[in-house]
Every structure is written in C-alpha cells, then in structure tokens.
Specification:
Low-confidence stretches: 65-149
Oligomer: single chain
Strand order of the largest sheet: 1-2-3-7-6
Helix content: 25-40%
CATH topology of the largest domain: Transferase(Phosphotransferase), domain 1
Distance between the termini: 135 Å
Number of strands: 12
Mean pLDDT: 74
Strand content: 5-15%
Shape: globular
Length: 421
C-alpha cells in the first residue's frame, strides 16, 4: 500500500495561525503595481483627451469665420528717439549725415520693438510738492481739458500742412526723431513721436490740461531759456504723442562733437561745461530733475556755440527725499544706486556732471573699462591742469556726501570766472 503523508500538527486552541512570510520580490511587486496601474490609466486618458482636443481643433479650423472689416487707420508722423541705453538721439545730431526718411505709414515708421528691462529707460516718478505749481506755456494743439483725444485724421492733416518731413535723426526704445521744416517761415524743427503705450507718467499743464510728463517738464523749463531745447507745440493722437521741438540749422550732439576732436581743450570744455551747468541749475530752480545728463543729450549749435539740454523723457519732479526708481543710462548711475538702490537727485546729477567733464577733456568714459573706484584715485592725463583734475575727482567721489553741491561747482577754482546765475 501507499505510504500515508505525515499528519500536520493542529494549532493549539486560542493561538492565531502563523502566515507565511512574503518574499522581498513579492513585496516590491505589490508596491509597484498600483503605481504602474495609475500611470497606465493616466496615459490612456491623456491619449484619449488629446485625440478629442485635436478633433475639436480640426472642426474649429474647418468652420468658416467672418473676416473683420478693414479699419481706415490714419498715417502717423514718424517719430522720436531716445537710445535704448537711455540716450535720446538729439534733435539735430545727424545733420552732417542724415538718414533717408521712410514714407509716412511705412513699417519703418511704426512702433518700435520692446526694449529689454535691463536697458529700458523709465520716465520720471516724482510728484509736485505741496504748493508747487506748473510754469511754462506750450503753444500749439494739445489734448482738451477733458482728456478727449482729437480726431487723428484731422490733426494729422493739419500737422502735415504746417511741416515738411525730412530725414531721420535717430531712433531708440522710446520712438524716433525726424528733421522737419516749418512751411510758414522755413525754420528747421525736429518732430518726435512717442507711442502712447510708452508714456507711463502723465502730468497737468498750468491750464489744467492732462499731458505726458515729458511735455509738462518741458513746459516748466524751456520757455525763455536758451540752454534748454524749446517745445514749440505738441499733439495727442490715439496711438502716439507728437512733439515739435526747435532745431538749430547747424548743430551736433556733444558726443559727436568730442569724437570729431578726440578731446576738447580745457578752455573750450570750460565754456560748454558752464552752459550745461547753468541749464541744470535752471531746471532744478524750476523743480525739474533731468536724470539723464550725458553728451548725447546735449546739443551744440555750431554757429553760435550755444549748448542746449535735450530729452526730458527720463525727467522727474525734483524732491528732497531719495529716489528709489532709476531712470536714465546705467553707465552714468551713481555708486549709491548700484550699492543700495537709492540716490539723491542733486548728488546723482553732480556724479553725471563729473563723468561729462571727464569725457570732454579726456575723450572717453572714465569707467568704461571697468575701473574700480575703491582701488584708489581716478587716473587722469598729465596734460590736464591740477584744478581740472581736482574738480573731476571731487564730482566723482564715491561717498555722495563728499560731492560738491551745484553752487560749489560755480565757485570752484577751475570755474571761478563764472558768475552764479
């Protein structure tokens, strides 16, 4: 007979039956199975959803859509220019080598591409102090007191009847500037166009009219003072702001004026620096801070030698407290802005004036090669007088409290023959 299998021992009463211990491979499979099951289900759902979405897209494309009616858009004047680094090409800086103007309404005269934030110029931020009024009168058409925009076609045609468009003078992140001629008397002018989406700050003219801050600041400082470019008239269109500015017949921006001579003799530099200093003093006395003083924003009349401060697109109301928003050209920003993120208006202006004077007498930016001010005194050419060297180093003091005030610059030994305005 067959051998009987051994009988299994019966568990004792009251004790739980021992379960077989699972292997490690079995544990891993049990843990991974829910995860793989969820992934497979998600993949199938996504595939099905994608197919449905693709089917909907095909049906939507196949469905005929009504074509929009073409809108009659008025041709706009080509416009302005402030360079993307914060510079505005002066209104007549390219008189020696003018570019050919594109036809009105062409793509070349359209809105400019956006500027990177690192190089974007920001318009002024301040507000007028209590008790401070707006001064200056701007001639010509502007927006009505109730901020209604005039009809673009009528305003455009009226402007074209008064001015004959010329060559392109410059372009930048804020628009374009074109040379033009006033038909009534043949006077040369510059026409600057700023797209409305680039106008970030608005102010109020003395008559209560709402206007871009640049127009308001120019109205405060340009009337009756030869050291600041005159605003002849301005116009608000649905898509842009048009400004008509004075333009000397023979002129050049200070940057090109210096490059043509490599550097300026101290006597010539002193005269031009004096005029720029008087223009800055005039602006601050009117409660306006320019915030972008550099050679590209100074126009030199080659016939009279008169220097004119231009481009108030980065300007702001002058305030005693610190500014926490930078506007202008980063290579002219003071050390306190780079280190702490704030600056005082007068101290930052004196810093930019020191860079300007260095460019006049040396022909180059003092820090364009990455010189570190903490290493020691700024090296200057031996041909310069000691008084000129001292003035440059005084203006370029790293500590803002060590820099001179604007009044001190008029009384400096290098400038002592200049009376205080």
């Amino acid at each position: 007979g067959r051998a009987m299998p051994p009988a299994r021992p019966r568990p004792r009463a009251g004790l739980p039956r021992a379960r077989p211990r699972p292997s490690r491979r079995g544990l891993a499979s049990a843990r991974l199975w829910p995860c793989w099951r969820w992934r497979c289900w998600a993949g199938i759902s996504a595939w099905g959803g994608g197919g449905i979405a693709a089917l909907r897209l095909r049906l939507a494309r196949a469905r005929p859509r009504p074509r929009p009616r073409p809108r009659s858009r008025p041709r706009l004047l080509p416009g302005p220019v402030e360079d993307t680094g914060g510079a505005a090409a002066p209104a007549a800086s390219a008189a020696a080598s003018p570019a050919r103007a594109p036809p009105l309404g062409s793509a070349a005269a359209g809105p400019e591409p956006p500027v990177p934030r690192s190089r974007e110029r920001t318009p002024g931020h301040g507000r007028p102090r209590a008790g401070e009024g707006h001064s200056g009168v701007v001639a010509g058409p502007g927006p009505s007191a109730d901020s209604r925009v005039p009809p673009a076609g009528t305003a455009q045609e009226a402007l074209l009847e008064r001015y004959r468009l010329g060559s392109l003078l410059g372009r930048g992140g804020f628009g374009r500037v074109f040379a033009a001629t006033r038909i009534s008397d043949g006077a040369p002018v510059a026409i600057k166009r700023v797209p409305r989406n680039r106008v970030r700050h608005w102010g109020e003219l003395p008559d209560g009219t709402s206007a871009p801050l640049e127009v308001v600041l120019l109205a405060k400082v340009s009337t009756g003072f030869p050291g600041v470019v005159q605003l002849l008239e301005w116009l608000e269109l649905p898509s842009c702001i048009v400004m008509v500015l004075e333009r000397p017949e023979q002129c050049q921006d200070l940057q090109r004026f210096i490059r043509a001579r490599r550097f300026l003799p101290e006597e010539e530099a002193r005269e031009l620096f004096r005029q720029v200093l008087e223009a800055v003093w005039h602006c601050t006395s009117c409660g306006v801070l320019h915030r972008d003083i550099k050679p590209e924003n100074i126009l030199v009349d080659l016939d009279t030698g008169q220097a004119k401060l231009i481009d108030f697109g980065c300007g702001a109301y002058l305030q005693d407290t610190v500014y926490t928003h930078f506007a202008g050209t980063l290579s002219y920003s003071p050390p306190e802005w780079n280190d702490f993120g704030w600056y005082h208006g007068e101290a930052a202006t004196v810093w930019s004036l020191g860079i300007l004077l260095h460019q006049m007498v040396c022909g180059e930016h003092p820090f364009k090669r990455g010189r570190n001010l903490s290493w020691g005194q700024l090296p200057l050419p031996q041909r310069l007088s000691q008084e000129c060297k001292d003035l440059i180093r005084w203006c370029l003091s790293v500590n803002s409290l060590d820099r001179p005030a604007l009044e001190d610059l008029f009384c400096d030994p290098w400038m002592q023959d200049i009376p205080l305005p």
